[in-house]
Design goal:
Order of helices and strands: EHHHEHEEEE
Distance between the termini: 19 Å
Structural class: alpha+beta
Helix content: 25-40%
Largest sheet: 6 strands, mixed
Strand content: 15-25%
Strand order of the largest sheet: 1-5-4-3-6-2
Mean pLDDT: 93
Shape: globular
Number of helices: 4
Number of strands: 6
Radius of gyration: 13 Å
């Protein structure tokens, strides 16, 4: 299992934008386009788009939640070496593509809350 540094932030900033970074990578869209889409949806719902309930509802509406045996993100990468997945942990969301974790930090040791298969 491999970790690769990835920061899609349009300005290269290191801010609390993991929801935008993860979803934009998984959906193959730009950071800006994803920001606008999520912001519009969250505003319509009267929520913030980094709210856990908003994120979980978005993922459940758009992707299939999958069963897994892994306890950590690193174990999940080994369990599913093919495909694109969005993975939630306490206070974070990240993307795995074909067994590679893409994020601004190595979170392979984080405990998984939920997993959704994007493709």
């Amino acid at each position: 299992m491999t970790y690769r540094f990835y920061n899609a932030n349009a300005k290269g900033n290191f801010v609390n934008d993991c929801v935008i970074r993860a979803i934009s990578l998984a959906e193959c869209n730009s950071w800006d386009k994803t920001y606008e889409k999520l912001s519009d949806m969250a505003q319509r719902d009267g929520r913030l788009f980094d709210d856990v309930v908003f994120v979980d509802e978005y993922l459940d509406r758009n992707y299939q939640s999958i069963p897994h045996y892994a306890e950590t993100i690193g174990e999940l990468c080994d369990e599913y070496p093919i495909g694109t997945f969005l993975v939630t942990t306490y206070g974070h969301i990240t993307t795995i593509k074909n067994g590679v974790l893409y994020d601004t930090f190595d979170c392979r040791d984080r405990e998984i809350l939920g997993v959704w298969k994007v493709r």
